[in-house]
Amino acid sequence: MSSTACYFDVSAETARLFAQAGESRWTPAGDLADDDPFAPRKRLQDIAMWLTEGVGSKKRIDLFCLGVSDSMCQWLSAPSAEMNVVAAAARGKGEEWGPGAALGTIEPLTSPHQKAKRSEKQAPGRRSGTHFPVLAIHDAPARVLLDALDRDGIRVGSIVSLWHAMCRAWDESLPTERVREELKSGSDNGSTETAAASPITAILVTTDDNALVWVWSRGRQLVTGGRAALIRAEHIDQTDSTPTTPPSSPLADVCGRLALDWLTWSAQLGQTPERIIIISPDAREIATECERLWPTAPARLIPEIDPVKATIDRLSAGVPVKPEADARTCIASLTNRPGRAHRRLNQWVGVILLGVAIAIIGLGFRLHAQAGQYQQQERSFQAEIVGKLGDIDQRLARDPRPLLAIDNKINQLATTNEGFEEPALPLPILTELMRVATALQGAEGVKIERIEITETRSTLRLQIPDTVTGERVIEALRTSDGKIRWIESAGPLTGRLVLNGAWTVEEPRL
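^ that's the sequence the OP posted. Answer follows.
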């Protein structure tokens, strides 16, 4: 055996370690003291210390198997197969189950991916729900033991009950080809996924605590299981002459109880076992009783002096058991419980988050300092705006958004005003004055008495020496380009030339 396995049953006070070097068994030093409330915990710590020494440098237990003396399978009705919903429904059944309600962990024996089927129409007064078996385990001692092993640095792989180990070790049925094609490729054990078309196999094992453990398996997965104690016959006093009924066989009594349990589960599941596998030193006697009480299922006998050891050896020698999340193949809540590696990961995550928090605090201080600088710049900008806009409009100066206020003011003035009209361009007075000067440039003896050029009136009064000179001036003004048309009011014959001008500008003024 290359892997290391452990079998633990707190009620039977049994702890066994199966390693490559061989098997070792833990034996309690004595009975538990009634006056010491911490005695059970101390005993579990002793078992953890013993397992730590037995594992040695490997520091790992690949398979941890729990006895079923404190476990039971019950039929439950719940709205869904979710773990929390099942736990709540089980608490509601506490009064019906009696002492069994004190069991710790309750796991549904259904596929974790299974969805409840809902009918389109529901009968009035009928509650919708899902019916399935559940596994109830008194796992408090196992959790204490696992915590102690974790503190000692021992890693524990998959955690199964004896029922799971029996299913995975002795059941040889596999899903049909049609069902195997429908399985998800990401399942933990693709070849051992349960299948509705697979037959049910009943497996029986006798344990060291004088009990007969039975389980129903479909596709190597747990359907339901139970346990019945073998009651030994008491010694009969031969001197007593009173006629008595001959004592019944212990196997007959326990097999009768087993047949009653099987009939109950057959009524709930709607199926019965198609084959029986018996692993026990008394396999032949048990097979005889089963044939008498359950004749429809053929029995396969496997005589073993130590059925528990044979089961664990066969399971460890096969395909390695992986940690899973399906209660039909392992105790999921214990297999996936956080351990030392998870706590170390949480510690590192905490350190990383602390570093991130410190970085965020430093960034916060830096942003706070920058915010102070920005506030100072804002105050200086505000003072500058007030200084520039205060003389224009105090309301604009006090506005928190002055640019937007100015744009709004401009838009308001633009909407209330009828519009801006550009004024007319000024008349070319200087150009006309230069025109007159050019016309007088070549005339000798001409004296200017008055020259007036305005927008409304233009007058030119000259003294001329003769008529020829006057006509020459008039001709020069007439032939030159200009905007004023000069009209003669007093001719050159009088020795004085008087001209009145009129603007001829009709197009846009240049």
